[in-house]
Each structure stands twice: as C-alpha cells, then as structure tokens.
Amino acid sequence: MTVSQHPHPFPEPSTASYDVLVVGGGHAGVEAALAAARLGARTGLISFSKKGLGEMSCNPAIGGLGKGQLVREVDALGGIMGIIADATGIQFKMLNTAKGFAVQAPRCQSDRHRYRDAVVAHVAQACQRYDLEVIEAEAKGLLVGADGKRIDGVVLGDGTELRGTATILTTGTFLGALMYRGNEVEEGGRAEEPASIGLTGALANLGLELGRLKTGTPARIARDSVDWTAVQPETGDHKPSPFSFSSFDDGDFVPALEQVACHITWTNPATHTLIANNVHLAPMYAGKISGTGPRYCPSVEDKVMRFADRDRHQIFLEPEGLSTDAIYLNGLSTSLPRDVQDDFLRTITGLENLEFQRHGYAVEYDYVLPSQLDPTLAVGSIAGLYLAGQINGTSGYEEAAAQGLMAGTNAALWCAGRVPFLLERHEAYIGVLVDDLVVSRPTEPYRMFSSRAEYRLLLRQDDADRRLVARAHAIGLATDVDLARMEARFNRIDAAKERLKQAKLRSFSGKSAADVLRRPEITLDVLESEHSLDFTGLTRADRVTLEADIKYAGYVKRQQEAVMRAARQEGVAIPHDFDFKGLEGLRSEAVEKLADLRPQTLGAASRIAGINPPDVALLSVHIQRLRTRS
Ligand SMILES: Cc1cc2nc3c(=O)[nH]c(=O)nc-3n(C[C@H](O)[C@H](O)[C@H](O)COP(=O)(O)OP(=O)(O)OC[C@H]3O[C@@H](n4cnc5c(N)ncnc54)[C@H](O)[C@@H]3O)c2cc1C
C-alpha cells in the first residue's frame, strides 16, 4: 500500500457526541481511534496537535527484539504501524538471524518526519472513509457520571464538553510531566510540548492508584559535525524484510525511500571519568526524580556507575531522516547539565567537534498502575474508561500501538454490545503484553522481550498473519483483501509442504525432502540448488514460514501440549475470599503479592512477578483440598 507523504486537511469536527473518544494522538491513540472507527464506532481523536499525530518522541526506529513481533501482530490485526514503517524506513534489518526463527525480529530505522507525516495523512484519509474526527485541543478533565463510577466523556481546555460512551486515555509521557536536564526543570511531556496537567487529578479523584516513572533521551547532533571517517558504518539487510504482510503484494519488498547506513562508535575512559565526576548533577542522582527509569535502556550515567568495570559502551549514530541533518545518539540517553554533555560527548571518537541540535533530557511522568485494568484494557472499577500506551507504565512505540489497537477495538465492541476481543498468551505477544500488565504492578517501564513469552515458538514474527488475520476479519478489523492474502499465502505454503513430503531424495537414502529439511544444515536454498527442488511461486516471506514450520514442527507440538496443560490449570478458580496469609508454607513474598493482587485463577497467580512454580503448586493443592471438603 502506498502512503501519501502529504498531510490532508482534516474536516472540522462536528462537536457532537461520540461512541468512542480517544485522548492523545501518539502511537497508542492513533491505533485506538482507527480500530474503533474501522469497527463502525463514531470516533473522536483529541490531541494537542493535528500535525503531531504519530510523532516519534525518542529513537527514530520501529521494531526490534520482541517489538518487531508486536508490529507484525498489529499489522495482522489491521493496524497501521507496519504499513507506515515500511513506507518510511531508511534501513531495514532482521535481528537475530544467527538464532532460531522464534526469536528473529524485524527492525527499521525510520525517517521520523516522514513517519509522522504519513500517520497524519493516513488518519486524514480515514476521516473521509469512516465516522472519525480529529479534535485539536487539550483534554483537561473527565465527565464523571452521577454515581462516580462511570465516565461520560472529556472536558477540553476551553471548557467544551465532549460526550463519549467510552473514553480511551493514551496520554503517553505527558501526564504531570516534568523535563529535567541538570538543574533545569520545566513542565512538558517532550521537548517543546506542554504537559497534560488536569487529567492526573481527575484519575486520582476516581480512586485510581497512580505512580511516577521516568525515561530519557540522548542529544541530537548535526550530521556535518561528525568525523564520519572515524566511525564504523553499519548497513541494513541486502534483502530488506518489511513489517506489513501487505508489503509483499507487489512481489518482493522494495523500500520506497533511499536506504542509508548507521554508524558505530564507543565511549572511552575519558568519557566515563567526566560522567562519574559530574554524576551528582544528574537529577536522578541528586534525588530530584523519584520515578524509576527503564533498567534495560539505562542512561549513560547509569551505565557508567552500574558497570564500573566496563571501559567502553557502544553508541549508534542514527540518522533521523533523509531531509534532516539530525543524528540521534542511540545509547547515550542523559539528563546531565548541558555543559557536562558538551564536554563528555566531545571525548568520543568521531564526535570531537560535534554541534548540538538539542541536548539530552529526562522526563518524569504519572502512570496508572495497570493491575486496575481488565484484559480489555478497561478500568475495572469505572465503566467506559479505557487506558492504553505509556500511561499504563509501558515504554516504546510498539507496546503503545498494540495496546491502542486492543483498547480501541474493545471500546468499540463494548459500545456496540458485542463480546470483547481478547488474545491469550499462546496466541500473540499482544496477549502476553496485556496479561503481564493486568496481573502485575510494574515498578519500572515495561517493554516487550521475546523472553517474556513462554510459548514463543508458537509466536513467530513470520506467521502473525496465520495466527490473527482470520480472527481480526471475523470481528471486522481486517478486510476481505487481508483475509484473501493470508489464505492464498498459506495455500501456497501448504502445497509446497505437501510437495516436500512427497519428494524422495536419493542421496539421503530415499528420505522425504521434508524430513531432510529438519536437519540444521539443510535449508530451502540447499534443497533448491543441490537437489533440484522447485519453489517457484513462493514469496520470500512464504519461504521463511515454510522452512520454520518444517524445522520447528516437533517443538511446536510439544509447546502446544504445554499450552493444553496450562489451560487446565489456568481455569482453576481461586475463591474470592481465599486466605493467602493463612496458607502454611507459602513464602512471605508470595503471600504479600497474592494478598495484594488477589488473582482470580491459578493461571493468573502463576504469572505474577515473584511467584514461583512451587508457590502455585502449593496453592493448587490447597484449593483442591478446599474443593473436596466442600
Ligand atoms: C524523552 C523521552 C524519552 C523516551 N525514551 C524512550 C526509550 O528510550 N525507549 C522507548 O522505548 N521509549 C521511549 N520513550 C517513550 C516513547 O516515546 C513512548 O513509549 C511512546 O511514544 C508511547 O506512545 P503513547 O501513544 O503511549 O504516547 P505518546 O507517543 O507520548 O503520545 C501521547 C500523545 O498524547 C497527546 N496528549 C497527551 N496529553 C494530552 C491531553 N491532555 N490532551 C490532548 N492530547 C494529549 C500528546 O500530544 C501525544 O500526541 C521516550 C519518550 C520520551 C518523551
């Protein structure tokens, strides 16, 4: 699908009532609004700026380990992140290709301005097709129903009241946000943008538990100020892999934009000394920020202090786009004062003469503890209120998009009195994400990793369409074209599988080509070049799925059996008045967590961070005893 790069004018909002109101036009909000509109809901998307929809606040990249799988699932469910990423990518890479298919993940470097403009254009087009309006305004408050247990819409900054049967908040890093750089503190959700102030109070008044998290971003520097001869180039894949299943419609995927290199350099002992000598000036270390930051994506000052034995840390120099000369310094997130950044960055090879376009900074913001949500991402105690994205304590565009799509879908289904759309942990990374959020209390920003998915062999990035398109089509999220594409693809793959089973290879004692393909050293390429098998008609994506299906068949079967076993345990209900404290032998940490979160089933208990299989086994025995007694 081609995405126009030129923003369309948005129609004027009619200010009538809506079925679904979405607050925030970031990655979560856009997917939420589009999903709700696709399902026929009259939808209003309120955001600070119409031109800023889909803005990339931090790194100019989509995908990555665990995240690339989420994007492919969002695409299979009819979302736009994959399509936009494919249209605006300037370097594509499949990660982990040396490892198994289950942990491979697509990533691309994006032209961030083109990405945002393409999102704006896409939403503007959707306004023509669906009952969707974009309202450029600040949401300042919530319209609370008379019983205090229902949200009826949103109050805008100028006092206008917009009615919504369901309201989805996707305010990202903007709630009560403060930006820090050394001693400098200013209100704002990201550089040069305001904070969202009123909504925190509105949420607290509803009795919701809120917390505070922080994240940071590195400096942007001018391209011409880098010594490119001193840094190491890193190019993308020779044959790029797209995110969207629709990107294979024209045959092989050819990126629309010119492809560019990123570059690598390293910090060194001089950098580390300067950082260590000034670390007391970083707001986290000076005790000015109370929020916890992402452990897996630490600031450079955290890296230097926590890994004092390391004498260098890798830095990626990533271009922010083709028509900007801004370079993003991936790996150097910092909130140290400007003068310290001036000094320590110039100790790095290639950056000795750098010119700053913007210094790094940290942002601290409010989030809502997601254990207060149900699996539709609705707030359990308040009818009509949904939350998605960074407001739920997650981090990352992909996690936000996935939640937005689920919240938008479920809000629209709820308005129409239809059954919710839920995904289980063995069906999708999105199922893992939502389940992790609603059963746990994240104390640091949550990001997806493939290690979070216990059934990851069933959740490959290449077959997200097989797992999800038919389900999305059944509720109206995916189109007939999406369904036909997926069915045609798996007809081709199944036919090729059959041919592999029938073909006997003499040089392997007459074994079938399918059996031979299970050997680690044999690939489809080998069967094609050395054994004259013909795979004409299969796309590159088909070949990956075919090969992975055959090589993984045994493991997949075992994992499916594990899913069935877990399903039996999953459904075992824990009585609502169960006395965890009186359960002899249960570790005190487990007692505390279970008593606090009160999971409804053994399955939910087993996934609480800090609850071990022996805790669940003990619980299971006691519940069994209670049942036989009663
Ligand atoms: C400084 C910084 C550093 C970051 N670092 C990283 C990182 O290292 N790694 C990573 O994975 N992620 C990082 N992120 C987070 C990443 O940007 C988010 O995870 C992602 O953008 C979340 O998407 P979202 O849709 O939830 O929110 P956002 O993309 O933040 O979008 C929120 C939207 O809501 C709008 N909005 C907010 N409040 C209101 C209101 N009251 N009324 C109307 N509109 C409103 C905003 O204008 C914006 O359009 C960083 C973000 C920032 C700001």
Give an overview of the whole structure.
It is a single chain. The chain is an alpha+beta fold and 630 residues long. The chain has three domains: 15-453, FAD/NAD(P)-binding domain, CATH 3.50.50; 480-569, tRNA uridine 5-carboxymethylaminomethyl modification enzyme MnmG/GidA (Arc Repressor Mutant, subunit A, Orthogonal Bundle), CATH 1.10.10; 571-629, DNA polymerase, domain 1. Helix content is 35%, strand content 17%. The chain has 18 helices and 22 strands. It has helices at residues 27-38, 67-76, 81-88, 112-129, 198-205, 269-278, 300-306, 338-345, 397-415, 429-439, 464-475, 480-502, 513-517, 524-531, 540-570, 588-597, 602-606, 613-629, and strands at 18-23, 43-47, 61-63, 89-95, 105-110, 132-136, 139-144, 151-156, 161-169, 178-181, 184-187, 210-217, 220-222, 232-234, 262-266, 314-319, 326-330, 356-358, 361-368, 385-387, 504-505, 511-512. Strands 1, 2, 6, 7, 8, 9 and 20 form a seven-stranded mixed beta sheet that branches. Strands 14-15-16-17-13-18 form a six-stranded antiparallel beta sheet, with no helix packed on it. Flavin-adenine dinucleotide binds at residues 23-29, 46-48, 52, 57-58, 138-139, 170-174, 189-190, 196, 199, 215-217, 297, 333, 363, 389-390, 395-397, 400, 447.
